[in-house]
Amino acid sequence: MPPRVTIVDVAARAGVAISSVSSALNNRPGVSDDTRKRILEAAEDLGFVPSLRGRSLSAKRAFAVGLVVHRDPYVLESDPFFGSFIGGIETVLDPRGYALILQMGSERVETLDRYRSLAANRRVDGVFLNELGVDDPRIPLVQELGLPAVGVNAGPAFPLPAVRQDHGRGIAELVDHFVTLGHRRFAHVSGPHEFIHGHQRRRAWGDALAAAGMEPGVVVEGDFTYEGGVSAADRVFGGGSREARPVHPTAVFCSNDLSAIGFMARASELGFRVPEDVSVAGYDGIELGTYVRPALTTIRTNPRLIGREAARMLLDAIDACPEGTRRIPDVDVDPAHLLVRSSTGPAPLQD
Amino acid sequence: MPPRVTIVDVAARAGVAISSVSSALNNRPGVSDDTRKRILEAAEDLGFVPSLRGRSLSAKRAFAVGLVVHRDPYVLESDPFFGSFIGGIETVLDPRGYALILQMGSERVETLDRYRSLAANRRVDGVFLNELGVDDPRIPLVQELGLPAVGVNAGPAFPLPAVRQDHGRGIAELVDHFVTLGHRRFAHVSGPHEFIHGHQRRRAWGDALAAAGMEPGVVVEGDFTYEGGVSAADRVFGGGSREARPVHPTAVFCSNDLSAIGFMARASELGFRVPEDVSVAGYDGIELGTYVRPALTTIRTNPRLIGREAARMLLDAIDACPEGTRRIPDVDVDPAHLLVRSSTGPAPLQD
DNA sequence: TCCCGGTACCGAAACGTTTCGGTACTTGTC
DNA sequence: GACAAGTACCGAAACGTTTCGGTACCGGGA
C-alpha cells in the first residue's frame, strides 16, 4: 500500500503551485500551454488520479446516485426490468464519473428510510424513483429533502422530471391483433392496482378495447408473478376445465410476461390449448418468453433505454440543481411495440 | 436547501471545541459525562448528521464496497443468485454504515477495468469477487492493488478470504436419490468449464457417481441458460424422439435450474415424459422451479446467506487491513441440500 | 510547598481537492 | 515612459471530519 500520489506531488514535480495543477487538469484557463503540458506530463508520470474523497468534500458532491429496490427477493430475481435498467444507467454514469449505489428495503416504510438516510449523510446526489405507486410517499419526501430525483414510468401528473415509455401504443396494437384474429371475448390479468404501471396498462387496455368497439371483458387482479398468473387463470376460467366452460374469454392480456407464462401453464392444465382455445399475450419482452412453448406474444419494452435516459436526466437535474431549479424536460422513449410470437392465434370457432 | 449543520454548529451550541464534540459522538474517553450529555443534546437539537464526505477524507475510507457483474442483461435478469445475494449483503452493510456500489461490465476485460478504476480513485474499500473463473485475472489484480476482497464460491486454492457453500453434499444426496429410485444411466448438463462453480458441480457429480459404484454417464456442456438446457436435451437424446431411443439416460442432473427447465421442456417435445421416462434435477432452488410442471427437483442454495457472510468477511478484512494483513478465516455456510419435488421419480422399466 | 499523574478540554494539523483574491509580469495605448 | 488591461501563476481558505500534542486544572503524596 504505497502512499497515494496527490496533487501536491504533481505540483512539486512540475514545479508549480497546486492551484495551477488543478486548473490544468480541469481544463480551466489561466495556464499557459507550456505549463499545462508540463503538468500533464508530471501527472502522467506519477500516475496521478484525483482523489474522489477530496473532490467530494470540496465540490459538495458525492458523485453517486441511488437506486432503492424492495428487498423482496423475487424482485431482483425475476423482474427482468432491473438488470437491463441498471445496465442502461451504468452506460451513462460511468463516463461521467458517477457510480450507482444500490439499496434494498424490505418494507415500504423501510424504503423511505433508505432514501432519508441516503440524503441525510449526502451519500448520493440524486435518486431514481422506480415502481411508483399512486400517491407515492417518496415524492413529497424527495421534495422536502431537496434531493434531485427522476421518476421512471411515472403517471401524467408527476411533479418531478420523469422518463416514460408509452403503454398505449403497444396495447392498441395488441387489441388490433386480437380483433383481426376474430377475438371478441377478452380478459385482462392486471398488476396490483397500487402501482402506476399496473394501473396504466389496465386503463390502456380498456381504452383500446373501447376504441375498437369491443366489450371490456373481465379483469382479474394479479401481482406480476408467475403464481399470480396461475391463480388468475383459475379465476378467468372459473376453475373449470375446458369442457365445463364452452364459453370463455378467447384472448387474454396479462400485465407482464411472467404472469402470462403462469397463466398459460395453468390454462394448459385446465385443458385449454394455447393458442387454439385461448390466445395469451404478456408485457415486457423477457427472454424466458422466447423459450416457453408456445413462445409468448408480448409487448416489448426497452428497460435499458429507459435506464439510460433516466440516468441522463438525473445527472442533468443534479447539474442544474444549484443554479436555481431549472426544470428538466420529461423524456418519452420510443413506445413499446407488439411482438407477435406463437401464443396468439385465430379465435376458436365457438359461439 | 438549508446549509448543512456541521460539527462546528454543534460545538458552538454546546459551548465546546469541535474536538470534544467528535470525541463525545464517537464514544471516546476524555469527555466528562456532563459535557457529553450537553453535546449529545446539542447534536440532537440541531439534527446533526456527520458528513460522510468529511469522514471519508479524514478516515481515508470510502465506507462503500463494490460488486461488479457482467453487463450481459441475462445475468441480473435471470440469475436468481444476484437478487438474494445482494439482499444478504445489504443486511450487513447498512447497519455498519456502508453502502454497495454496483457496477456492470460487458466484457471480461472491461470488468477488470472497473475494478481498476474503483480502486484508483478509492471509491470503495473492498470488493466482492463473484462468478470466479479458473485462473481468474481479478485475483492478481486485487492483490497488486492491495484492495481487500472476498471470493464467493471460490475454488480450494483461492489465495484470498472466501465464503463457500459446499456442492458435494447436495449432489451426493441427489445421486443417492437417483440410485435408490433404480436409475443406472446418467447424464449431466454442465455449466461452462471456465467457471469454478460449473467445474466443481461437474466434479462433485462424477465423484458421487463413482462413490456409488455407477458409470459416469454422459456429460454435455451447457451454459447455465434455458436455451442451453434445450440444446443439451437434443444432444443427450441424440436429437431423436423417444421411440427412436429406447436406451437413453434416465436420470439427468443439470448444473442449474434454468437449464434444467429448458431441458425438461425439450425432453417433453421429444416425447420423453418427466419423470416417467426421464428424471431431471437442477441446482439453485429458484422460485420458477416450483411453478413449472412437473415441479423441479433441485439442490437448494442460499445466496442470501452467502451474501451476508461475504459482506461480513469483507468488512472484517477492511477493518483488519491497516494493522497488518491479518488473515480472515474462510467461511463455509451450511451446505446446499437436495429438495425433492416432482421432476424425479422411479427409473422406467427398460433394459 | 513543591511536584507529579491524571483528567478535561482546546487548538491546530491533516486528509486532497477546488476556488478565489492577489501579485508580478507582459503587452498595448496615448 | 507612465498607466491600464490582461495573463500566468501563487497562496490561502474552504469543505467537515478525526487525531494528536498541549495546556490548564485538580487531587494526592512527600
Automatic annotation (TrEMBL), chains A, B:
Keywords: DNA-binding, Transcription, Transcription regulation. The keyword Nucleotide-binding does not apply. InterPro entries: HTH_LacI, LacI/GalR-like_sensor, Lambda_DNA-bd_dom_sf, Peripla_BP_I. GO terms for molecular function: DNA binding. Residues 5-59 form the HTH lacI-type domain. SMART domains: HTH_LACI (SM00354). The keyword Transport does not apply. Signal peptide: none annotated. Pfam families: LacI, Peripla_BP_3. PANTHER family: ALANINE RACEMASE (PTHR30146:SF155), LACI-RELATED TRANSCRIPTIONAL REPRESSOR (PTHR30146). This is LacI family DNA-binding transcriptional regulator.
